[in-house]
Automatic annotation (TrEMBL):
The lineage of its organism: Bacteria, Pseudomonadati, Pseudomonadota, Alphaproteobacteria, Sphingomonadales. The chain crosses the membrane at residues 265-286, 315-338, 358-382, 394-415, 435-468. PANTHER family: ABC TRANSPORTER PERMEASE (PTHR43471), ABC TRANSPORTER PERMEASE PROTEIN NATB (PTHR43471:SF3). It is a multi-pass membrane protein. It comes from Sphingomicrobium sediminis. One of its GO terms (molecular function) is ABC-type transporter activity. Its main location: membrane. One of its GO terms (cellular component) is membrane. This is ABC transporter permease. Keywords: Membrane, Transmembrane, Transmembrane helix. InterPro entries: ABC2_TM (IPR013525). Residues 19-467 form the ABC-2 type transporter transmembrane domain. Pfam families: ABC2_membrane_3. It comes from the Bacteria.
Length: 497
């Protein structure tokens, strides 16, 4: 046993001295730390600036402006309702118009919301009711902002605006107001032409187009009804008649699909980590075995230890390297998640629920460890069969493709919630078993199937260790020989006594 541990320590030190090891191990933590900063830098969360030019003698422009403000208030009220329900604050905030989740807000609700102080009043009510450990409500930026009309187009015709459209959306100087994103023109002949002119730097949001279409359709119907002699008060009553809609949904994050996805995050992430660590440490394992055979160092080592001890020591050392990377990655991920403010920490806590179950922890550790050892034997076998890295790469690439392609398909199927009979069948394919079981833990896997998969993986690992032991004994000193398939298979046979 001492010889195995000495070889494992030597293998660990050898790989730990490689620059590629440190770059690989620290790259993911660096991305985790820098990623949120880059996302914040690239995220354009400002409101779309809208120039609204109203030349119609009617009230179309005013109705558009009011509808934009109405939709923004409804969006804010929906966010407040979800926040209150998520943190169970319905009783604490009283009968606030935005506290009732599960129905569509109408004009009366928006009017009551504005009379109560709008968003500022709602935040004051929430801050007075929430506990200290409850995160504060963080409103998202508004979608739209009505800005001042540039003097160059205030009185311009449609043709004149079209002629200078490119310059209207270009950036301006520091002292000048920012360029608009959308220009909406309700021309003086709107009542006759029934055309609303829209210019945009990029395709406008569908919600804005729905607002414009809804307002113009309502206004057009009002004119047509007025032409039929219907009183304006009656027209307004007809247009404002809407049913009360009751909506029943689980709390935010509490739906069946949401729960499955959240609980699948940790197992799927571990399956990805297992795949990444195997690919990286497997290459180092192959490289170390090839180098030792090429410089005759293996002969000196075999004078002191048996081939089986050398094999187990190299597997243990490489496994320790892989687990070191995994521990660093997991620790950094948890640190970043819990030091971020707002939704990230709230999202990661339910994802860590499997760790509260002893059975889940044992299952994760078992399949992770057994899968790592079983697949590492494949890479070590490639190393002892190859005379140089060019030859080794010819074996490594097909093996990686055989593992990566099914695993990639598996991850996408599990995340999309479309796990089928194919995914269940992959549970019984030993090289893929650890990935499949880890990925399926969040969605649920039967106890009998779980135990059966564990036994299959254990048998496969034992078989791989047995075959690798024979391959080690027959191949360590067999360098420079031309090898056909029959010659390679012969090395797995029991050595002659």
């Amino acid at each position: 046993m001492n010889n195995i541990l000495l070889i494992a320590a030597r293998e660990y030190r050898h790989i730990a001295k490689m620059r590629s090891f440190w770059i690989t191990m620290l790259l993911l933590p660096a991305l985790l730390l820098v990623g949120p900063l880059i996302a914040d830098f690239l995220d354009d969360d400002r409101a779309d600036r809208i120039v609204l030019i109203d030349r119609d003698p009617g009230n179309v422009g005013e109705a558009i402006s009011e509808r934009i403000a109405f939709e923004e208030d409804v969006r804010v009220m929906n966010s407040l309702a979800r926040y209150v329900r998520r943190h169970d604050l319905q009783d604490a905030v009283g009968d606030a118009p935005w506290a009732e989740d599960g129905r569509a807000f109408g004009p009366a609700d928006v009017l009551a919301f504005r009379d109560a102080g709008g968003l500022d009043g709602a935040i004051e009510t929430i801050d007075a009711a929430r506990a200290e450990e409850t995160p504060a409500f963080e409103p998202s930026p508004p979608w739209y902002e009505i800005v001042e009309t540039p003097a160059a187009i205030a009185d311009a015709s449609v043709e004149e605006i079209e002629a200078q459209r490119e310059s209207l959306f270009e950036g301006r100087g520091e002292d000048a107001p920012p360029a608009p994103d959308v220009i909406v023109l309700v021309d003086a002949d709107y009542g006759e032409q029934l055309v609303l002119h829209v210019w945009a730097d990029n395709p406008p949001r569908q919600s804005l187009m729905n607002i414009l279409q809804g307002v113009t359709q309502g206004e057009l119907r009002g004119r047509m009804l007025g032409a039929e002699g219907i009183a304006p008060e009656r027209i307004a009553a007809i247009e404002s008649a809407t049913p009360s809609i009751s909506i029943s949904t689980p709390p935010p994050g509490g739906g069946a699909s949401d729960v499955t996805i959240i609980r699948s995050i940790l197992p799927v992430a571990l399956a990805y980590v297992l795949m990444m660590s195997l690919v990286l440490s497997g290459n180092w394992l192959v490289q170390g075995a090839v180098e030792e055979r090429s410089n005759k160092l293996i002969e000196s080592m075999l004078a002191c230890v048996r081939p089986q001890q050398l094999m187990l020591g190299k597997l243990m050392g490489t496994a320790a390297i892989g687990f070191s990377m995994v521990l660093v990655w997991v620790a950094c991920a948890i640190f970043v998640a819990f030091t971020q403010q707002g939704a990230v920490a709230e999202f990661i806590r339910p994802a860590l629920e499997p760790l509260a179950n002893v059975g889940a922890v044992v299952t994760i550790l078992y399949f992770f460890l057994m899968g790592y050892v079983a697949l590492s034997t494949i890479f070590l076998g490639i190393g002892v069969l190859s005379d140089d890295m060019n030859e080794a790469n010819g074996f490594v690439m097909p093996v990686m493709m055989v593992i990566l392609l099914p695993v990639t398909f598996l991850m996408q199927a599990v995340i999309a919630g479309s796990a089928s009979g194919v995914v269940s069948a992959m549970t019984w394919v030993p090289p893929l078993t650890p990935f499949v079981v880890l990925a399926r833990l969040g969605a649920g896997i039967g106890t009998v199937e779980l135990i059966g998969a564990g036994l299959v993986l254990a048998a496969f690992t034992a078989l791989m260790l047995f075959l690798l032991g024979r391959l080690f004994q027959a191949s360590l000193l067999a360098q420079g020989q031309k090898r056909g398939l029959g010659h390679i298979l012969a090395r797995f046979k029991a050595p002659a006594k």
